[in-house]
Amino acid sequence: MAKNLVIVESPAKAKTIEKYLGKDFEVKSSLGHIRDLPSKGMSIDIKNGTFEPTYEISEDKTKVVSELRKAAKDKTVWLASDEDREGEAIAWHLSIALKLDEKKTKRIVFHEITKSALEEAVAHPRHIDKNLVDAQQARRVLDRLVGYEVSPVLWKKIRTGLSAGRVQSVAVRIIVEREQEIEGFESTSSFKVTAEFDLSSGTATAPSLLRAELPEKFKTEKEAHEFLKKCVGAEFEVSDLETKPAKRSPAAPFTTSTLQQEASRKLGFSVKQTMMTAQRLYEAGKITYMRTDSVNLSNQALSQAAKEIEKKFGKKYVQTRKYKTKSAGAQEAHEAIRPTNLSQDTISGDSGQERLYNLIWKRTIASQMAEAELERTTATIKISTTDRTLSAQGEVIKFDGFLKVYFESTDDDSGTNPLEDKMLPPIKVGQELKLDHMQARQTYARPPARYTEASLVKKMEEMGIGRPSTYAPTISTIQDRGYIEKGDREGRQRFFTVLVLKKDKIESDEQSEITGAERAKLFPTEMGEVVNDFLVKNFSNVLDYNFTARVEEEFDRVAEGKEKWNRMISDFYEPFHKEVKKSEDVSREEASQMRELGKDPETKKPIFVRIGRFGPMVQMGTKDDEEKPRFASLLPNQKMEEVTLEEALELFKLPRSVGKTEEGEEITTNFGRFGPYIKFGSTFVSIKPEDPFTITHKKALELIAEKKKQEAEKNIQIFDNGIKVLNGRYGPYITDGKKNAKIPKDKEPKKLTLAECEKLLKDAPAKGSRRRFKK
DNA sequence: CAGTGAGCGAGCTTCCGCTTGACTT
């Protein structure tokens, strides 16, 4: 039996390490953290000012811990979790939870999984670094204090179930403020002049058109027009021709953040999709660990890359490099994301895995390839009637280098191929040019771009908020909470003027274009805006963009032993808690941005707009009135700041009666959670795309008849005690009105007996028991 | 994923970082 137990964090890592260490070592994994603060309650000693946390073994880790306990018995235990704050804390928690004997416990770290690196690590064990552990505790406690003191204020003031936190609230703020920038953006227009010259000397290989542009833009149409007028009958001549060499370098190997960005831009993946696919590749041993902030490649990978590049492209394409991390707060416990075997440029798997793998392979290989060498030519064109000159640019690739394999995209990618030469036609200094036409086109300044999931991750990384393991979950959380939405927006038509000078005549033309269309961009919801306003107003410190960077400095001081962690937390908590108390005095009306629109002409009651339990709504009367207030949700296209009294009164016209059914039942119509509907008795019928304000009696009866037909087909079996077998949207199912059950494949829904149905219902999982983010 | 359609209630919700869960359509 092995005398040594090595514990790492990930099972895939355990498997590879075991191969290298020989049979004296058994390797197991902890699956990340094994102890944490309980999810219920604060579990921090605030009263005595020690901020001492109470940990418990996480519910889903009890099995792991008991297995590790068993495996650790009578063995030397090597704690080999990552060499960062969280990794050190995992080692410490393990030593406590497994009740390890200090004399037989060793802490080791390694940065690459090779036999020599592992032997080196085993030869130099150390003790757990308690200062580093304390820095993690400070991080953990601070996040708990912020999250669990601020969220309840939101429940009381705005809506139950909301959340706030050091990371998520700043992420929401970024989106909200970007939207405000876009709304406040005043698009100015200017006129850009371009000219095309006809070169009769054009050959089959060289273009016969020379495109040039005026480097400056004109602010007004008048100025642009004056310039074109000056050019009427002018002579044009090449006055200067300058050629300069230029270089382009490859991008660094992938980190979590850059992988998410490129997979989004090149493959259209969401950040979640990227991480799930990468996880599969990692588990299959195809790539290194996918949650990393390091751009470093192991020496072994570097030499393998060099060998591959030489084999595939030749020696002059090889240029190995060591990249340095730029991002703030990087902890670099792992390598960059790369293929484990660089000689494999493709793999077989599902199409997502194949594409992501190939992307990682290309990026890794390109990062070790030679720079691309270009030649940029600038031609200056003199105009006989003015001092202004036109300029034409061409670019020729002399040596493609890394571009042969891969080039990084940008967010506003126009989809141009960087390998395509943009050559100038053959021209000489002093050559006269014949103008084909010149135009001045009105162009508009563009507002700042909305974020995509991936560009938000990039921004977060730059600001040092969040970690590779949390980018994707954080982006899911703020969408689940209803703070931001991923969506599309249709573009609008915009007109612009083009002045064209051709054959000595200037003509003006009005043209239109579609602008502002968005796909899969992040938009704040009104809830997101209201919550953000409240948080920024009341918790300016935590919501400050530099808050995380500041506390990270403090955590570093704790890690270096220069400051005690609970002292640091105490210094933070005192003013923070004052802010919490103060925020509790803000009225619900103010927090929910309640605003009076005016009075109802009939009842004279005040009408308000505010955010409510289910989103933006209008309210007639107040809760102190004898009669209960009336409520109506805003329509999806209405905004709280813009809604008028007239629109609100319109909303209160619902529910509206549209007549009676054939049986004499009243039909009413309204907007509901799932869109517009009509209702008779207790039956709801969706009327999309009809509209409750305009739907006719006739149309309502038609829809009701259709619904009744569907209902008739819906019931498969009905038992006396209320248990039903129904035909639902997702196939047949059993229900007792409270709980639903699936029907096994081998059973026929029509022939199920009551006893069988009862049993299936009993065995079915309780409704709502499947939590979305089960830890 | 969810088999629906509220609006005050009772009791519940919530943080950030580590890691992989796996009943089937």
Describe this structure in words.
34% of the residues lie in helices and 24% in strands. It is built from 21 helices and 28 strands. The strands form seven sheets. Strands 7, 8, 9, 10, 11, 12, 14 and 15 form an eight-stranded antiparallel β-sheet that branches. Strands 2-1-5-6 form a four-stranded parallel β-sheet, with helices on both faces. Helix 3 (85-97) packs across helix 5 (130-157), helix 5 runs parallel beside helix 17 (565-583) and helix 6 (168-183) crosses helix 13. The protein is globular, with a radius of gyration of 33 Å. The two termini are 34 Å apart. Mean pLDDT is 89; it is low at 767-775. It binds one DNA strand of 25 nucleotides through helix 3, helix 5, strand 20, strand 22 and strand 23.
Question: Key features?
Answer:
about 775 residues, alpha+beta, 8-stranded antiparallel beta sheet, 4-stranded parallel beta sheet, 21 helices, about 35% helix, about 25% strand, DNA-binding
Topology record:
Elements: E1 4-8, H1 11-21, E2 25-29, E3 35-36, E4 56-57, H2 62-72, E5 76-79, H3 85-97, E6 105-107, H4 115-123, H5 130-157, H6 168-183, E7 189-198, E8 209-213, H7 221-231, E9 236-248, H8 256-267, H9 271-283, H10 299-313, H11 351-367, E10 372-383, E11 386-399, E12 432-444, H12 453-463, H13 471-480, E13 484-489, E14 492-502, E15 505-515, E16 518-524, H14 526-538, H15 540-543, H16 547-559, H17 565-583, H18 588-591, E17 595-599, E18 606-612, E19 615-620, E20 630-633, H19 645-651, E21 656-660, E22 666-672, E23 675-680, E24 683-686, H20 697-714, E25 715-718, E26 724-728, E27 731-735, E28 740-742, H21 754-763
Parallel strand pairs: 1-2, 1-5, 5-6
Antiparallel strand pairs: 3-4, 7-8, 7-12, 9-10, 9-12, 10-11, 12-14, 13-16, 14-15, 17-18, 18-19, 19-20, 21-22, 22-23, 23-24, 25-26, 26-27, 27-28
This protein binds one DNA strand of 25 nucleotides through helix 3, helix 5, strand 20, strand 22 and strand 23.
